[in-house]
Design brief:
Blueprint (H helix, E strand, L loop, with lengths): L6 H17 L4 H12 L11 E2 L7 E4 L4 E5 L6 H21 L6 H14 L1
Parallel strand pairs: 1-3
Antiparallel strand pairs: 2-3
Helix pairs in contact: 2-3
Length: 120
């Protein structure tokens, strides 16, 4: 992925990643999370997975206010790295949907991160 993509290219990229996920052209952990997010009532669309420029220290993040996962364009080493990031952020999305996490409470946020580290 190249730096400096236009807004239209960001939308196309997000849609492409979403289609990869829907068609099963991703690993079993991503498919598992998509299934369980749907069971939890999360109706994912490509708008929930935007691709945006980020600093080089991140590969993605979960935005509770937007209910979206941001993937950092150009910051992935390979497809497996992207999938690992998706699963990590999907787990935050799942916690948010099922457990209504108060992300401003650092104890809850830390708990979510620790749980992710023990399960991925």
């Amino acid at each position: 992925m190249e730096k400096g993509l236009t807004e239209l290219q960001h939308v196309i990229l997000a849609h492409s990643i979403f289609l990869l996920a829907l068609t099963g052209d991703v690993g079993p952990p991503v498919q598992f999370m998509l299934k369980h997010l749907k069971l939890a009532g999360v109706d994912l669309t490509s708008t929930h997975i935007p691709c945006q420029p980020c600093d080089l220290t991140r590969s993605g993040g979960f935005s509770p206010d937007a209910g979206a996962i941001v993937l950092c364009q150009g910051n992935f080493l390979n497809k497996k790295h992207m999938e690992h990031t998706l699963v990590h952020e999907f787990l935050h999305m799942y916690d948010h949907a099922v457990f209504n996490v108060d992300w401003s409470n650092l104890r809850y946020h830390a708990c979510s991160e620790v749980c992710l580290l023990t399960h991925i």
